Fold these 2 entries.
Entry 1:
Amino acid sequence: MLKTLGAQVKEFKKASVLTPVFMILEVIMETVIPLLMASIIDDGVEKGDISHIYAVGGWMVAAAAVGLFAGVMGGKFGARASTGFARNLREAMFENIQTFSFANIDKFSTAGLVTRLTTDVTNMQNAYQMILRMCMRAPASLICAMVMAFTINVKLASIYLAAVILLGTCLFFIMNNATKYFQQAFPKYDDMNASVQENVSAIRVVKAYVREEHEISKFHRASGNIYKIFVKAERNLTYNAPLMQFTVYGCILLICWLGAKMIVGTTLTTGELMSLLAYCMNILMSLMMLSMVFVMITMSIASARRITEVLNEKSDLKNPEAPLYEVKDGSIEFRHVDFAYNKESEKPVLQDITLSIRPGETIGIIGGTGSAKTSLVNLISRLYDVTSGQLLVGGKDVKEYDMETLRNEVSVVLQKNVLFSGTILENLRWGNKEATKEECMEACRMACADEFIEKMPEGYETHITQGGSNVSGGQKQRLCIARALLKKPKILILDDSTSAVDTATDSKIRRAFKEEIPDTTKLIIAQRISSVENADRVIVMEDGRIDGFDTPQNLLETNAIYREVYESQTKGGGDFDEKAGEE
Ligand SMILES: Nc1ncnc2c1ncn2[C@@H]1O[C@H](COP(=O)(O)OP(=O)(O)OP(=O)(O)O)[C@@H](O)[C@H]1O
């Protein structure tokens, strides 16, 4: 953990070293000042020596100025190192997250990653700043003040020692108890962020189902859990300040009482008594600082652990050592492929899949909900790896390709497609940043997106809001298809990507594919039989297995599921699940 986090501080090594150095310099000045003050009182004020007051007073001002300078510089370097550390952590985490496979993301959950990138990093930033500024300063100040107190008067200094031991022990138990609660708060932040994220991304569904009250109470629960934890933690911390004050005043009273007696007995001077009182404050302030550092460190351990988990997470999809950078063609072959999301699960989602697809073929894939159609196509671009068996693209195992090369050749229009905030043109160029406007328009024409884009007042410069909420479902799907086409892939996968497009436009798109990208292998997952009936062959999926793989005409004669769905949809117009479920 330390090695991983240490790598992110390297850049700020100088600032990380200079901060404690300046803080110690500040402590030295803080220790010297009461001594000078004692000299002013004993040798200047009491003896009426004005020149001594001026001379020592000058040194005192100089020491205070050096202390001020050291404090400011320490603060400045500390802030630079801690904010830089936080920036590096955020960026390193974000970069590593970009390498994550779907399985890695599933492991952490999106909300969990957001909390780690925000709350946990801020926590580490505060802790690091505190550590740099206080970790050396507080013990140094405590030790210096204690040594000075003992040099002045052993008897009175022993009172400090007793107070430090007593107060230190109390603070340790209080802070330890509070920290326990602080550590519990982070997983609760994950829950709250998950609730916010889910609500915001599904706000339309929430409104459509009038579930605002339900969502509010769900959020209140998540937020309330954090509140409860903090109340418990803070309840512990409320003892700190009164306990400190009580000890400080107690010590001052005792020192004044005993000190006054000693002054009368001439075993102590007034100046020494004043320095002792100043050291009393230094000692107790250092204790307070140490207890805060203790809380920050223990709290940050939980965050550090959560951040390190993300930084050390390696994508379970590895690029081969000597990768292939060229995919020969769009042929696909599954050889006895099994696949499970959870390796420990008893039954794989895909079982013994064996099939072969020729380059340029149009393959329809149909099957009931959960029959593993998406899981099947996700393996082709290595969004997940097969659990057993082998998957070949262009005659080579997908694991032999450079991942970027493979994914550039396999274009997937996901079921849950996403548009980003930006113009239509910018969104299209996500598929290929080099694409000219003409190429974008050509792709839109093929995806039948040109008609509605040209009707928009700003055409291709129309701004899309986040998530594509200002375009209709069908328009969004067509834009996503155009974006996928711009990659000019050897394999194009449409995962239920025309479900919101009317049947006439759907067939127009498929015709354009056949005529204009004949060499591209097309895999079309669909619920509508009309979307696959002109395919070269159709895969019928049933419960993670292939129930049939043939031309639509042959399937009509040989495959009961296909025939039933065909008949029900052409005669009755129902969808796949309704009819398959009636079997
Ligand atoms: N990320 C995941 N983690 C664990 N299980 C998953 C995951 N995604 C899908 N599954 C499970 O795998 C099975 C197949 O899901 P898949 O999405 O491949 O089916 P599908 O045929 O595409 O369904 P649909 O037509 O509804 O999209 C389902 O039982 C589903 O619960």
Entry 2:
Amino acid sequence: MTATILDGKALAAEIRADVKARVAARIAAGKPAPGLATVLVGDNPASQSYVRSKRKASAEVGIESFGYELPATASQAEVEKLVSELNADPKVNGILVQLPLPGHLDEERVLNLISIEKDVDGFHPVNIGRLAQKGREPSFVPCTPEGCMYMIQKSVPKIEGINAVVLGRSNIVGMPVALLLVRANATVTICHSRTRNLPDVVRQADVLVAAVGKPEMVRGDWVKPGAVVIDVGINRVDDPSSPKGYRMVGDVNFDEVKEVAGVISPVPGGVGPMTIAMLLRNTLHGAELSDK
Ligand SMILES: Nc1nc(=O)c2c([nH]1)NC[C@@H]1CN(c3ccc(C(=O)N[C@@H](CCC(=O)O)C(=O)O)cc3)C=[N+]21
């Protein structure tokens, strides 16, 4: 039997519909539309395309977006000045500084400057720190990890006590998704490039989250039969037979793993659309925080 394929577009549509209805209710109650500021520095085509998708998705649910574009040569002071102005702007409930920033800029200092109450990416160290502490609540949870959790909750009757394996320990996905799984009472193993006997460790997973950025690294024989496999990877691989000359693959060898897993998320059409849906939800949450 082959795995159930998680339809990220359909799950994201559920979240968007909920956000859209709640935004409409706010507006009907005389409150302003939630506002999202996107900050794009430089002219990386992939970043431009992601920011365009985020602004389009915002408009579809009634979130107003404010696009800011700075040249690749922008100074640290210019970027910081913009973030400070957005922090002070009451129309802005969420600030998204598209990453990666050009190499001459200090990303950490920029992220540290974003108001904790407008940190819709959930990357501010205070929000990450609260995520890591028992009994503390972050103002925002990072979008991709939250999207992974939504997919896991849809696929596993009870997360408590399961073995979850996270492949990758990045600030933006691996570590926060591991923290969310711990908060949901899973037993969590974080694997990385120095892990010994990696396939054996991965094979213990009831739930596997692959977020290492290595194309099709997870093979069919690494996966426990029936496991839930969430593939966060977005990798471009050369493919002369495809019209564009490349295709997108995840960190999981989909064709092999779908024969073993119980549930699997595809790439594209899996976690990617969830990330954007969670950004919309977080922006609405930012507006709700500003009501108080
Ligand atoms: N501050 C910041 N926040 C981010 O959330 C952030 C970022 N920087 N930098 C880049 C990454 C990447 N990211 C994606 C969002 C949606 C898709 C997505 O929707 N992908 C579609 C395919 C889209 C296509 O094919 O063009 C899919 O997987 O089906 C992918 C990747 C957000 N990121």
